[in-house]
Structure formats: C-alpha cells, structure tokens
Amino acid sequence: MKIVVCIKQVPDTAEVRINPETNTLVRDGVPSIINPYDMHALEAALQIRETAGGEVTALTMGPPQAEAALREAISMGVDKAVLVTDRLFAGSDTWATAYTLCKAVEHIGADIILCGKQAIDGDTAQVGPEMAEFLDMPHVAYVRKIDEVTNNRIVVQRLMDDGYDVVESAVPVLLTVVRELNIPRMPSLKGKMAAKKAAIIRLTAADLKADENSLGLKGSPTQVKNIFAPEAKTNRMMLSGTAEESIDQLVKELAAMKCL
Amino acid sequence: MFIKVNREKCTGCSLCISSCPYDAIVLHEERAQITPLCQLCRACLGVCPEGAISEVAEASDQKEKGQGSGVWVFAEQRDGVIAGVSLELLGAGRRLAGQLGTDLSAVLFGKVGPGPEELIRWGADRVYYCADDSVANFNDEPYARLLADLITEHRPEIVLAGATAIGRSFIPRIAARLHTGLTADCTSLEIDPETRDLLQVRPAFGGNIMATILCPHTRPQMATVRPRVMKPAEYASDRKGEIIPVSAAQAVSRTRVVETIREVSEVAVNLADANIIVAGGRGVGGEKGFALLFELADALGASIGASRGAVDEGWIPYRHQVGQTGKTVGPKIYIACGISGAVQHVVGMQSSDIIIAINKNPEAPIFNIATYGIVGEIAEIIPLLTRKIREAKGL
Ligand SMILES: Cc1cc2nc3c(=O)[nH]c(=O)nc-3n(C[C@H](O)[C@H](O)[C@H](O)COP(=O)(O)OP(=O)(O)OC[C@H]3O[C@@H](n4cnc5c(N)ncnc54)[C@H](O)[C@@H]3O)c2cc1C
Ligand SMILES: Nc1ncnc2c1ncn2[C@@H]1O[C@H](COP(=O)(O)O)[C@@H](O)[C@H]1O
Fold first, then answer.
1. Which of B140, B192, B271 to mutate to test the interface with A (most CBs of A within 10 A)?
2. Are B70 and B105 in contact (CB under 8 A)?
3. Neighbours of B363 (CB within 10 A)
4. What domains does chain A contain, in order, with CATH numbers?
5. Which helix (H) or strand (E) holds B309?
6. ipTM of the assembly?
7. How far does B173 lie from chain A, in Å, by closest CA?
8. In what order do the strands lie in the sheet with B255-262?
9. In angstroms, how far apart are the furthest CA atoms of chain B?
10. Model pLDDT for residues B26-78, shown as the tens digit of each residue
11. Mean pLDDT, residues A147-174 taken together
C-alpha cells in the first residue's frame, strides 16, 4: 500500500489580523505550522500503515522553508518526504496547486492519498477533490472515520450537513479528512532524531514534466483582486439589571426585530 | 504578474515586512526586497507609505476572455427536498442575470416533492432536469460528470452552488475538469460594471480577512456560496419557464453510499442551514447544562452548537463544534452560553447577524463581539430565558 499525505505549511491564521486603517495584514511573529487538518491526515496514514502495511510519503508544495513541515512529518513517523518547489509555482490558486500536486503524485505513485479538509489560510477545501479529478480517481471528502482498508476497497464515514454517510470506494482513492477522525500522535524522540538526518526529496517543475502554462500564476484561473477587513459590528449593548430585567429587555429587542 | 519594490522610493521602514503573511519580504541593504516566498497574495500592496510597492503585469497576463452567457444555479436536493441555499442562490442569480442582461437557469438532479416547476416559481427561467434514479442521491463522480457535460454543452458564464457538504465536495472536480476558476464559500457576489466579471467576496485566514476574487479569463466563473447570506428570490406561483429534460448517460461511479445516517436528534444539527443557533461552552458545566440549552433551542426552533471546550469535555459530539476546527456558521441569531470567545471559536461564528452572549465573567472576550451581552449564571439565565421566550411566542 502506497500512501501519500499532502501537507501544507500555513501561517497560524488565528493570529493573523488586518489593520483596519491600512487594510493590510499584520503578521508580526505569527509562526508557521503544519495545517492542523493535515496533522489528522498524517495520523490516519500512519494508522493505515500499521494495519495494512505499506509506505507513507509526506508531500508538500511550497517554498524551500516548507522543508520544516516535512521534517515534522518525519518525526511523526512517515517514511519519505517530498518537497515540490520551484519559482514557477508562485501564485498558484487551487487549480494550479492541485495540478502540480497531481503531477507529483504521479511521480511518486499512490494507492491512497490523504488531504486535510481544508487549509486554514485559504479555507477553500478545493485542492483535494480537484486533485482527485486530475488523477482520475474517486474521492471522499470530510472523512470522519475509516472503517475498513484493503488493497482494492475502502469503507469510510463521510460527515454531511445532516448526519453522515457510510461510503465504499474503489482504491486508488483520495480522502480529505476532518478533525473528528483521530488525535495526531506526538513525535517520538527517535523520530525527532531521524527527522534531523533524513534526506528530503526535492522535485522541480522540470522533474514533474509539468505543463508550464498550467503552473503558478499562469495556470491559475482565479486572482485575488484585493483584501480588506471584515466589517466590524457596531450596535453592541450590555443588558444590565437583575437577570429578569435583562432577559425582559432581550426578549423585547428580539420581538421588535421579529426574531421570535 | 509579479510584485516589485521601487528601491528609490523605499525608505527601509519595514512596514511591508509585517504585512506579509508568507514572510516573503526581507530587508536587503536597507531596502525591502521580495523573495521567492512571494505567493502574489497582494497583501502588501497599499501598505507602503511611499508607494514603493507595486504589481507589474507581464505579457502573459493578457489573455482573452472565455465565452459564455447565462447564470446557472445548481439546485441541491436531498431526500426530494430542495436545499434552502439553492433558493437563496436563485435570488442572487436573478439579480446577477438582471445586471448582465441574461437569463437564469437551475440544474436539478433527482426528483423533488413539488416538481422541477418549483424552481421556476422561485425565479429560474429554465430548469435542466435529470430525473434518472442514478442521480437521485448525491455521488461525486456522476454529479460532476453530468454537470460538467451540461456546462460544456450550454456554456453559461456563471455557475453557482451552495457551499454545503455536497457542493464543496463535487464542484471542485468540475473546475479541475474544465480548467476554470472556482471560489469557495462566497459571502457576496457582484458584477463589475466595466468588465462584466463576477466579483466574488469571501472570508480567508479563518475569517480574519475578506478577499475579492476574480476569474477574469476563463468561463464559467464558478462559486460556492455560504448558506444564509443571500436573500431568496420572490416566490411567484404563476411564473412560467422551460423544463429541459436531461439524461444521465452512464452514471458510473467508483464510490457507493452504503448507508446514510441522519442525526436523530429532536433538535437539528444542520448548523449550516440554521436560522438560530444556541451554542454552549465549558461554562455550561456538563450534560445537565446542555439539557437546558436543548430546551431553549426547542423553544426557539434552533440548532445546537458548541465550543471545542465543551466537545473536549465530552458533553456534546464533535459535529456540533463551531470554529476554526469545526463548522463555520452564519445564522441570524447566535446565542453563546458559557463560551469565552477564543479567537478559534469566534472565526466560526462572527458573521452571525445577532450575537447574544451569556457569561458570568464580564471580562470574557465574547462580549467584545456580542450584539447583546448578559452577565450571569447559565443555570439561572437560560431557564428564565426559555420561559420568557415561550411566553412571548404564546407557547
Ligand atoms: C488549533 C486550534 C484550533 C481550535 N479550534 C477551535 C474551534 O474550532 N472551536 C472552538 O470553539 N475552539 C477551538 N479551539 C479552542 C479555543 O482556543 C478555546 O480553547 C475554546 O473555544 C474554549 O472553549 P470555551 O469557551 O467553551 O471554554 P472556556 O475558555 O473554558 O470558557 C468558558 C467560559 O464560560 C464562562 N462560565 C463558566 N461557568 C459559567 C457559568 N456557570 N455561567 C455562565 N458562564 C460561565 C467562563 O467565564 C468562560 O468565559 C482551538 C484551539 C486551537 C489551538
Ligand atoms: N501547497 C500544498 N502542498 C501540499 N498539500 C496541499 C497544498 N495546498 C493544499 N494542500 C492539501 O489540500 C488540502 C486542502 O487545501 P485547500 O483547498 O487549500 O483548503 C490541505 O489540507 C492539504 O492536504
């Protein structure tokens, strides 16, 4: 079983803020982390390897610095780490990212591909399903439980808006996972040592034999036109008095707004 | 396109460096320099007081616009019921079609209770309707293939779908297949009057920033749209339109839904579609406390949400979790009970119209974003609120 986990290095967005006066991001000292959803994808890959055997490769597309994310993945126990990096990839939207990752997966070979549900910087949740289409593979999104894995078949639970579906899929398959799936393990001491020494496989656009017009900004159908701060809510009101008084006030406000 | 620093104008003040989410700007010989880390996110444009940072277009940026006309809405159904967001999209689609001087079509896979005509009454001029049993239930591959084929044949300029579990799962396959842009989870859609391009606004970075996204050269322009942010179109029982039957050629799929489990809870957990959400945090104190919230939710016809704090305690299942690592919601009313208001929670609910916070600590950060705040004990406030609401509603 060959398992590839796509991980993305992201700024810890909870700490990214916008300066409302200048409409620009303030990112002083915000650390880079492995996208939290991808940690669950990593854990799932390691668990599949424990039961079904095989080899786990962590794959990331990003700047040279993304190597840090791969070393963290190695410390958790992945067998191989691949960094896809090239100046030509700059400005990739989800389409170009998925295309590039697809080329990398073709290069590595995979039976099961695991992605996080979404990356916390873009929050799009599109790269996984787009990759599956490029690879001509089925996919199951929002996997919350993996019930069964064999060489040609997988049974998983998919979180839906109103409950969940039990889905059976042929292998090869791509899964995107939610956090309910598992609790990611901590790196072991041995893993940390291995991570320091491990060789990272680097691939460029040329190595992937990718079509240049499909990469980076050129290959990206979407563009960011501008960014701005979310509207601040202004009509704040602390309700005071006894519990009864404040609740009466609240119910009155809600009734006035026809919310009841 | 690339980002350039004018070294003559740059004073080396470093303002741009802290504006870059990707650490892609460094000081080099006392001047800002863009490194290969640049993702072209444009966050730095406009931050420079000297105007030294600009974007430079390249010859390859000039592409021809793809062709297409008409606005399409994918009408999602589950169990024969049309998703609320689809009616909202018909409202948005009607407006966009009006601005573009074109027409509005709905695409419906599977049968719905009132029949496909219902979509016409909700504003569509035309419905592409596939009644085949093979697409009665959602399945990524057949849905993606069928919709992609219809788009290739009829070439709409805009395709909208709900940012639901279904829409966000299969629509990306279509964007990949057709090599066109897809913008996720939009909260506002407008037409640029000059270029006729769709201006797609969406939250990013966990809701800390908003971004306007364009798909300038390829068609269709595709977007998934967050439920409950657009207004439904006006329903007119006498509206006339055209129904175009479509057959699902061969709906082969390598995935199969073995079983569908609906959450059998008296109070719906469909948070994405909820009008009102009553959410509990660690301050609710336990399952008993949540029982009080369920009663309040029952009185209001609300869904139940939770903070990670409460989920981690095991008082309520994960699927109720709201926030960065749970669901993103935008109901009309969000009642946060015993939730401190940690930023990871807030990013998932801050777009709610009205936020009511109940917390015993007057300093709790949740009050900073609340429309109405009550300082008090959950055990006291909630039952009283439930009773008063029942009274007000005459229950
Ligand atoms: C990577 C990451 C992702 C995360 N993702 C999420 C996420 O998606 N969603 C999420 O919610 N959190 C998330 N968190 C956790 C988040 O940081 C907070 O820890 C969490 O939201 C706290 O939950 P809480 O407000 O219920 O609990 P607490 O912070 O413990 O707050 C409880 C509140 O209840 C009040 N209170 C206590 N007793 C009473 C009483 N009797 N009556 C009234 N009020 C009372 C207290 O004053 C306090 O304000 C994430 C954290 C990390 C690091
Ligand atoms: N640059 C990248 N390198 C590796 N994996 C990625 C990259 N971008 C996205 N992914 C994967 O795709 C998932 C969804 O990302 P997104 O569509 O950007 O929200 C992530 O959780 C990752 O598993």
1. B140
2. yes
3. 9
4. 2-214 (3.40.50.620)
5. helix B308-312
6. 0.85
7. 5
8. A201-203, A80-84, A55-61, A2-6, A112-116, A173-177, A139-149, A153-160, A163-170, B255-262
9. 73
10. 998 899 998 877 877 788 888 888 889 988 876 555 566 777 899 999 999 99
11. 94
How confident is the prediction for chain B on average, in pLDDT? Answer: 90
Let me know if A190 is exposed, middle or buried by CB neighbors in 10 A (0-12, 13-18, 19+).
exposed
Rounded Cα distance between B322 and B344, Å, is 9
- Reduce the secondary structure of B105-174 to three states and give it as a string: EEEEECCCCCCCHHHHHCCCCEEEEECCHHHCCCCHHHHHHHHHHHHHHHCCCEEEEECCHHHHHHHHHH
Asked if pLDDT for residue A232 goes beyond 70, the answer is no
> Residue B62: what pLDDT?
56
Q: Do B184 and A125 touch (CB under 8 A)?
A: yes
Query: Domains along chain B?
Result: 2-56 (3.30.70.20), 65-245 (3.40.50.620), 271-393 (3.40.50.1220)
A117: CB partners within 8 A, 6+ apart: A37, A125, A128, A141, A142, A176, A177, A178
Of B335, B339, B346, the residue with max ligand 1 atoms within 8 A of its CB, to mutate for a pocket test, comes to B339
User: Does residue B133 come out as left (phi exceeding 0), alpha (psi in the -120 to 50 range) or beta?
Assistant: alpha
CB A41 within 8 A of CB A177: yes
Give me the residue from B176, B184, B209 closest to A25, CB to CB. Answer: B209
Does A212 contact chain B (CB < 8 Å)? no
Cα(B359) to centroid(ligand 2), Å? 37
Helix A127-134 × helix B165-178 angle, to 10°: 40
DSSP secondary structure letters along B32-80: EEE-TT-----TTTTT-TT--EEEE--GGG--PPPP---EEEEE-EETT
> What CA–CA distance (Å, rounded) separates A136 from A157?
22
Within 95-134 of B, beta carbons closer than 8 Å to A belong to none
How many contacts does A have with B, using Cβ atoms within 8 A?
315
pLDDT at B347: 82
Average pLDDT over residues B351-371: 92
Give every strand in the sheet of B104-109, ordered side by side. B182-186, B221-225, B158-162, B71-75, B104-109, B126-130, B242-245
**Among B174, B257, B333, beta carbon nearest to A259:** B333
pLDDT of residue A24: 64
Q: Does the pLDDT value for residue B266 go beyond 50?
A: no
Rounded to the nearest whole angstrom, what is the distance from the C-alpha of residue A94 to the centroid of ligand 2?
8
